[in-house]
Amino acid sequence: MLQRRTQTAAFWRDQFQVTDEDLDYLRQVLAETHRALTTEELALRLVEEYLRRETSRMESELAKGEIYQPAGHYEVGQRIVFPAMDFQVGEVVGIRPGRNPEHGEFQVIQVRLEGNGDSVREFAADLKTPHALNLGEGPGEEGTLLSPEEIYQLYRDEIEESLLHALEEGPRADEFVRVNDHWLLADMLAEIHVGHLNIAEALIEVQGRPLTPEEILEELELDTDVSQAMQIISLNYALSRDPRFDDVSSGPDHLWYLKRLEPQEALEVPLLLRPHLPRYNRALLSVELLQLEWELDDEWGEAGVTGDLSTGIPSTSFALIYPHRRHGTIPLSSRTRSFFPTKPKGRSMVTVIDGRWGTRYTAWVVHEGRYVCGLKGWMDEHNLPVGTYITLERTQNPDEVVIDYRPRRMKREWSRFAIANLDQRRLTFEMNKVQITCEYDDLLVVSAQDPEALDELAQEYERLGIGLDEIVEQVVPELTKLSPQGVAHAKTIYSAVNMVYRCPPGPLFYSLVSNRRFQDVGDGNFALSTA
Question: Which one is predicted more confidently, 55 or 315?
């Protein structure tokens, strides 16, 4: 058979490495296509080129002599090519009879290989028995060759790893530019200097809204010799490298805004929204606790509904917990995520419409933080407590969502009030009445006597490395004192702990069941152990 390296896993997994020759070829491809190409497109072109080079080399080497096959007949002075030995060429310098009962009569040819001095090697010839090196008797015939697409799919990770390393970190990385997942040559870009970027900043500020690259280009007067498509790519690339600008689009097209006009919660995840995810033995959680975890649908939890809600479902609801109430955010959980744009990272700007009064709020989907911010004004306007049932409804516009709550007649209700004892670094609780005008989950209701003091206590816990178990040890006795039955519900403990330490239900429930100080008394309630 004719052995092709490009048809083997060993080559692509262990030997393939993008070379200068490869980069020259990719430069030529980008220059000739006059457009940006994706990583996948470049990788496919490179695989095709490797197959072309291999075929060309094989044709060139095979033209130097007869292809060696054990079944072939050869004469002294004949030149032979050995594909299995990386196409080495040799000359037959002698022939003798072969001796091997298994193969019957055959010949042994003596071959002097080029580049090996006077050394001579021997090979079988006129062999009557089957052998893998005879053409047509082994794998690798042209009809069975893998296509470039098949090779790429089989070894995609290895090929792209080598390609991206060369384009992004190699010595010639400055020759190539990446815009999203598209590549082009740096010298294909239109010139965009700081003056252009200053104009873009002023335009966005004057308009008071995000602008498309097309809207910005109208005022920049770039080189008309550069195509409109390349001007857009060049502008997007320049804006993405300037820390003043932020792409807040919800889809594949760019939409540029100024970071300094965005709320702080959009740019930096607040401490209370940064989850602690300690390892725990999930097998120890009871069915009852797992059900509670499912009900809470924490965005960092492990037991949300089966996958995200379908976009065909018109509305959803969830109960508000303290970290989101404190910062005016709502979670991107399995029940809410499909109501908002999705991106791997960054931010998207959306409009949230008050279902009561129709007021429109600009909100920011913080994808990596798993929340939507910018709704503190709406929550304050309606005086919503922790535990409020909030509803979301879809609209015809994918970038607009209606937000609402379930109103009821105003009534004064008892609420757990958290008090931060900064001197002792402790969280304590007492009961007080608050006015509530909405439907809510009574087990989640907690209030902050001094939110700033709670923030300070949370920062102190973080600085000192105080973990979940220690905070649960503080909180549970405090909450059981507020109950005539001397119990605290798991959801209440979850709500209280999250006032100073962001943690999903799973690890927190494990902290409860694994602590001998606490006893599960049923119905999700825990009491102090009397043992």
Answer: 315
Residue 379 and residue 428 in one domain: no
pTM as predicted: 0.77
Among 59-63, 147-151, 343-347, 519-523, the minimum mean pLDDT is found in 59-63
Residue 328 has pLDDT above 50, yes or no: yes
**Residue 411 CA: distances (Å) to CA of 381, 396, 437:** 17, 36, 6
Nearest Cα residue to 462 out of 261, 297, 269: 269
Structure tokens at 222: 């770039």
**How confident is the prediction for the chain on average, in pLDDT?**
91
C-alpha distances out from residue 134 to 81, 120, 128, 137, Å = 13, 22, 11, 6
59's enclosing H/E stretch is: helix 39-62
Q: Where are the beta strands (DSSP E) in 83-119?
A: 88-97, 107-113
Comparing 22-31, 226-235, 281-290, the range with the smallest average pLDDT is 226-235
Assess whether 250 and 147 both reside in one domain: no
List the domain range (segments joined by +) for residue 333. 271-280+299-408
In this model, does residue 24 exceed pLDDT 60?
Answer: yes
Contacts of 477 (CB under 8 A, 6+ apart): 528
Plot region of 77 (φ>0 → left; ψ -120 to 50 → alpha; else → beta)? left
On whether the CB atoms of residues 45 and 26 are closer than 8 A, the answer is: yes
Structurally, how many domains does the chain consist of? 5
C-alpha span between 102 and 104 (Å, rounded)? 6
In a domain, 460, yes or no: yes
Separation between Cα atoms, residue 237 and residue 245, nearest integer Å: 11
Pairing of strands 182-185, 245-247: unpaired
Distance CA 44, CA 156 (A): 10
Residues belonging to the chain = 531
Quick one: 164 and 57 in the same domain? yes
Structure tokens at 74: 């050869």
Integer distance in angstroms from the first to the last C-alpha of the chain? Answer: 79
- For residue 441, pLDDT over 80 is answered with yes
